[in-house]
């Protein structure tokens, strides 16, 4: 009876089963994990402690070994770097408490402290026997931003004295801090002269100080000179870990404390510069080159080691300066000052341009003739041409064979033969020689720049076809590209004459690696007793040959004196909002070098070709290319604009990318037209050309619109510039028809290393002048301004 009452359940057949729902359980599925990782490989780490199985005595011995290794590593580093004083830069933002007064405060804190003054050099030496440490204080003029940066580059510690009786900094001080933190600062100590003793007033003053320091030093400790002993600040400076920059690690440098000029009797125009100071950083190669900031590269004739004029323990008797050792340069091993290649005007052999251009099927020779470059030198549609440059004959643009030390001064000979190189550099020299006394001219010129930049943002690279001349003649140097990213462009084609003067590194990464390895191996060479290297930490006198002006001296790495194209990645500084035109003269601070040049701005993207920017971009990263000596990255870059002969303004910051002469920078021109009659995908376009011959000339170039339509020219209609075009999708009457043309541009040879130190903009009146156009003047250093009295 029970069996009859059981309910029979229907079971689906084999081919009617419903699909099971996929469930990965509590954990994530493989697809979710792969989607989240996006190809990244995770770090394999052991969850178990590595030394858990060791016993207590073994763990204790292991910790002792780690400690002894660290002590040995620190002592070895100190032995390599030498016992040089700690370099400290003082920046006083309090008018009532100057940097000189701060040095006196540190001196009076200890009765046994010994101070040596060098007021002309703004350098003060303080020896504190209690800490067995010496300090060198730099007190630069805060109105001179270049001298402040020079001291900052060679400093181990930065001391900033903040004001307590104000809630807002002066314009000059705020801009000075902007430049300092944009350049990169060493470990910083924030000081105040005094804080109120009352608890409430002290807290309110500290909060106002923190608010004042927030844009530059947020959440930083504040040291009070009155409540806290200055000796405790010096003690903490002594124990602070020194974070050296790449410039200080890999290059020797010397701060000039005593400078003398020895005239050369054989050559009246040159002299020998005697620079005395403490050698810091890496060992100095006597046969290498040195760079004097703002002056150039020079050779060394000899190095004289002298006794330390600022010892830790002062002897009772005044000891005269004694010569301990002299190292002279070997002329056979000395690096030559061949920064660029000297052209031979009698050698007229030119690389042969490969004219086998890939053309679309059915393209005739007449249609493809515009693709081949000729000797036409056009004018820039937005920039007035330089008559002297356009009239210059560049048929003697010769590339010489010179291969040395990984450098190749000539492009490869494959598929090249005889032919002429013609300058493709745009002539962007405008009538920018402006008199600052004529305010109306400056205002009109600045308004014109703002207008052009606004038009370039709204309609980038769009130009109108000229009515007076043929469009095919006006843009004969330009060519069309099927794809800006994938279409080929020969980097050796139509190079300017300046490219025959520079060097090209065949393998930049390998050459940079070898140069940095040689700098690191110099420490081992000093330990082995190599006489061509000078160990850091000694007080030496450098005999620099054939110089005209002294400043801070840096040692150069191998091949860093050779001229090439320097590419830098920059960002516009947020507080600067004025237009900067392409190829405008700017001041560059690149590593240890200070020079002026006219950069070419281009986009920083992936690919082999990069579009030129007519103005400095207002946001994002961009690339600036100049002719300058090779500088190996990593190196910081600061860019200033000269607002007047003695005033500067920070406009951009960044880093060095590489030195690649084959970087292709293309200037784009957009020819625009208007649809006259539209029939679905076919349209009659006007105002792009004004005669039938121009239409036939540019017929192979692709057309496109702002709405994303792509098309081509089918045929000319009539003789007054009308043309029939076919597009891939229906066209709207409100659309604009565009055609892209490209031409390669090159930087100008305007590199100038002889730049005089300039001051920063400090007042509202100067700010108004900064909004005016730059004068582009160049000032050279005079050696008598820095010479010490003998």
UniProtKB/TrEMBL annotation:
Required during maturation of the 40S ribosomal subunit in the nucleolus. This is Pre-rRNA-processing protein TSR1 homolog. Its main location: nucleus. Keywords: Nucleus, Ribosome biogenesis. Residues 19-32 have a biased composition (Basic residues). The keyword Nucleus applies. One of its GO terms (biological process) is endonucleolytic cleavage of tricistronic rRNA transcript (SSU-rRNA, 5.8S rRNA, LSU-rRNA). The lineage of its organism: Eukaryota, Metazoa, Ecdysozoa, Nematoda, Chromadorea. It is found in: Nucleus, Nucleolus. Residues 372-395 have a biased composition (Acidic residues). GO terms for molecular function: GTP binding; GTPase activity; U3 snoRNA binding. Belongs to the TRAFAC class translation factor GTPase superfamily. Bms1-like GTPase family. TSR1 subfamily. Residues 84-243 form the Bms1-type G domain. InterPro entries: AARP2CN, Bms1/Tsr1, BMS1_TSR1_C, G_Bms1/Tsr1_dom. PROSITE patterns: G_BMS1 (PS51714). Residues 1-38, 348-402 are annotated as: Disordered. The keyword Nucleus applies. One of its GO terms (cellular component) is preribosome, small subunit precursor. Pfam families: AARP2CN, RIBIOP_C, Tsr1_G-like.
